Amino acid sequence: MKELQELARKLLSDGTVKVVIGYEEGPHGIRAAFITDPAQSEKLVFDKRCVQNLVAYLNPRRKHLIQLGKPAIVVKGCDARSVAGLIREKQIERGNVVVIAMRCGGVLENPENDSELTCETVSVRCAGCDVREPKLYDYILGVLPPEPPVNPARAEQIAVLKKMSSAERWQFWTEELSRCVRCHACREACPMCFCVQCTADKAQPQWIDPSATPRANRAWQTMRVLHQAGRCVDCLECERACPEHIPLGLLARFVADAVERRFDYKACEDPSVPAPLGLYRSDDEEEFIR
Amino acid sequence: MTRRFLTHEEMASLVAELVAAGTRVIAPVCAKDNAEQIDYMPIRKFEDAKLGVSLPRRSLKEFFLPPSEVLLYYVQTKDAVDIREVPTEPPPQVILGAMPCDAAALEVVDKVMSWGYRDELWFGRRESTTIVTLLCGVMDSSCLCTTVGLGPDSSRGSDVLLVPVEGGFAARLVTSKGEVLLADRGQAVNEALQNSAEAVQSEARKKLKQTLPAIPAEFADWLSKNFDNPVWKTLALRCHGCGACAAFCPTCHCFDIVDEHDSAEEGSRRRNWDSCQTSKFTVHSSGHNPRQSQSERFRQRMQHKFSIYPKRFEEILCTGCGRCSRICPGGMDLPEILGSLLAMAETKPEGSAQ
Amino acid sequence: MSDGVKQETISTWSPKIVAFVCNWCTYTGADLAGTSRLKMDANVRVIRLTCSSRVNPLFIIKAFERGADGVIVSGCHTGDCHYSTGNYYARRRFAILHDLLDFMGAEQDRVTFSWVSASEGNKWQQVVNETTARIKALGPLHVYQEQKGGEAQ
């Protein structure tokens, strides 16, 4: 932590960056910090409560942040994949952001209940982590902790869903999505949902009805997760942002697994690796085509 | 204002009779997706209600202004459009165990719903609903009810206010609707019971974790004079502009009207919850957006709630429930933000555009 | 008429199937099926697009929301795309859509993907008739109409 605070102080004092986007303690736990004054660098923290993927704050749509000037951003290895995604899709330039990567041994699923990392408390997104040592960075800090425990909760939920009949799955999603009020917190918190005009906001024609009805909610979530196919890094900001605790992470994981199985692609920190839905192979599976 | 004492059994039989008569009874219950979460939902019997456990996830707003509601249906034939209106006199319902902040919000929003035009759908439901509020004992540090002039024992918007006492509730019949609901149930309240209820009420006030004082009357003016204050540029850096705060706020009431087609011939006109925090809220048909960034949009939220609405309707558009702070995915906290604005107003009453 | 759906008994119901077809291969193949007077069920409404790659998954979802009981998406065989590579990209997109629809509980069999070339009039006939039979067996898709959200509370 001291390392991080000192680096931030230096980068701000010598003008390398105008703002450091990191984590701080807020009234409700850890939240994003926007340090513009070197003297405020002591606010920066990094520990297992830092679940949040902050890369949504690099979205070029966010004018009030852009006008602060060149940012540095604190990322874990998994979050760095979102930075790579934004660079890959030409939303930011590599030279316009300073990436401060933190070596990480796992984060808590519910950081409000600060405790040791166990297979029950660790975030489901840490399962199978291969980026404890981040690869995309300008600065890399911290010591490499041991591998995180594996929280099987989400894989188990997906397995349960797959065993259900199609009608039962329909019922499951209808019930879960009945709580959706179309606030679009999932979209706004997502680092890869950077479209200036979202398809759902287009009214001429209205492809996705904006009303909070079971039918329209289903269309919205189906399309959002489809638009994320091959781009989503499974950071779970969508699920964490959802005020109704709809298990959107199940959809994110399912699509990520489908993309991996079919196209041998996992979200990565290398912006030069192209996104899978912008590619093809002549021998892609077509068992579903008659 | 009459007072009665009702035992738990008497409350249970009231609920049973209401349900049997076809009246919908809504109360806080355990959420279906998470037993630790409380939601306002219809109940069949009093035992299903989880009174005084915690603040329900959503406010009462959805029972008066649903997240999406049909305004009319239409069918287009070759020569005409056939419009079918929706009923504006819904069947009676009772809300049992409303939080005081949620009940008060309804009276606050009544003002705009009757401003120049009486919203029939809103008032249809307001008139057919009886609200039984429960004294609040579940406050946390996000709450702001006393800051906005209310409190855990506020009876604003309530027809009956219940104070939990030994063996039941001391009920204060606030309105004639409340008197009609309780009719001749329960017993008269004797002095001992009265003292007991008052003790419970003052205990509740002691549990408050709020540190912000009441908003002074001059704050509304200070805000409008400080529209161009540079503080707005940095207050909302962490705000994602999602609008979750507005959706869960009991006093936010903005809506969008859309036409939805089910086929070439049939469809409905609906109104849906909307929020000034979303980027498209003020986009003109020309494409111009007068509120281009989140700092301007967040400024609007604070101005509307604490300056514009108070000046027009003499009501703060906030009842201090704290939901916005608890659910914000970006970590925005209203006590923190309001605290810093109030401190600025105190030290620089004239404010400055610096 | 509270949900605007006319009540039909199963015996009078005939499936509504929407087909999104590419202009160069499938549309021409379908035309060939027609000029060859091949017998086909008359339930399919054809929507012609330039390429199967033009098909946005939204079209499929919207077709179901608007009353389709089944959807066909058909284009050129891989390697034969008029635009060289369109159907390759489409194949990847449809693969994920196909998997996701199933995961969300939609009946996978209501969406039919096929490659039909300009000379495959017989294949188009097969796709149409086989799809229609399959949708008839599945029955009308009421669930979307039921879920559009009815009267105010």
Provide structural commentary.
The complex is a heterotrimer of chains A (290), B (354) and C (153). Chain A has 290 residues and is an alpha/beta fold. Chain A is built from nine helices and five strands. Chain A starts with a helix and ends in a 27-residue tail after the last helix. The mean pLDDT of chain A is 95. With 354 residues, chain B is of the alpha+beta class. Chain B folds into two domains: 2-206, no CATH class; 219-347, no CATH class. Chain B is globular and about 65 Å long. In chain C, α1 crosses α4. Residues 1-6 of chain C have low confidence and may be disordered. Chain C has 153 residues and is α/β, with parallel strands linked by helices. Chain C has a single domain (15-142), classed as Rossmann fold (3-Layer(aba) Sandwich), CATH 3.40.50. In chain C, strands 2-1-3-4 form a four-stranded parallel β-sheet, sandwiched between helices. Chains in contact: A-B, A-C, B-C. Chains A and B meet through β2, α2, α6 and α8 of A and α8, β11, β12, α9 and α10 of B.
Topology:
The complex is a heterotrimer of chains A (290), B (354) and C (153).
Chain A: H1 2-13, E1 19-26, E2 29-35, H2 63-66, E3 71-75, H3 77-88, E4 98-102, E5 139-141, H4 153-163, H5 166-177, H6 185-189, H7 214-227, H8 237-241, H9 248-263
Parallel strand pairs in A: 1-3, 3-4, 4-5
Antiparallel strand pairs in A: 1-2
Helix pairs in contact in A: 5-7
Chain B: E1 2-7, H1 8-20, E2 24-30, E3 38-43, E4 68-76, E5 81-85, E6 93-98, H2 100-113, H3 120-128, E7 129-134, E8 160-165, E9 168-173, H4 176-182, E10 187-188, H5 191-206, H6 219-225, H7 232-235, H8 244-248, E11 255-261, E12 266-273, H9 294-313, H10 323-327, H11 334-347
Chain C: E1 17-22, H1 26-35, E2 44-49, H2 57-65, E3 70-75, H3 86-103, E4 111-115, H4 121-138, H5 142-146
Parallel strand pairs in C: 1-2, 1-3, 3-4
